[in-house]
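Quarterly update from the structural biology core.
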Amino acid sequence: MAQELDGKHVVITGGDGALGQAVVQAFAGAGAVCHLPIHGPVESAPAAGVHLTGGVDLTDETAVEAFFASLPSLAASVHLAGGFQSNPIVETSRADLQQQLDINLVTAFLCCREAVKAMRKHGGGRIVNVGSRAVEVPGRDQVAYTISKAAVAALTRALAVEVRGEGILVNAVLPSIIDTPANRAAMPNAQTERWPKPADIARTILWLASPENRLTSGALIPVYGNA
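Predicted structure, tokenized:
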């Protein structure tokens, strides 16, 4: 896998988060050149093989178009950007729902669209989105979040059918609660040893986004192990 990704250009959104950092490390370790769109300014020099582009709002159509248009030949695009909100439905406003759709669905949709444009120029590529276990097993008080992630799952499957035969494979991973410092702090009494680790999820994403994956497309891959 490392040889197949060596020198290949890969987009990773949400690369500054806990899962994102593990994914960037996995791809950089496999020799890929990682391009990370950052919403704020670039404040520090990135690691070798990592390129940061600041000021990219992934909910802004024009900004996403410009970012992808600036890239070299694209081998893979991994869409980790997103967010979580938990409220009972009677306390969930239309604005709350729209915020979850924007940050989870719209970001993935725009990046998928621009990735397809880029990949069609060079004969194919790999796209990986991030859904949630909530798509299959909804949690309590997570209606807006679940709707947005279910839409990402639908986007993944629909796009896989649309680009079938073009050398573009589209998949999504479905994590449960990920073992991150923020989640541990928010749930100090949870059985954190059962939560999936970012590095383990990153390995699954790496395979899905690599040329070694020659057949799998339209799949929603559970990445929660014993959780």
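DSSP finds seven helices and seven strands in the chain.
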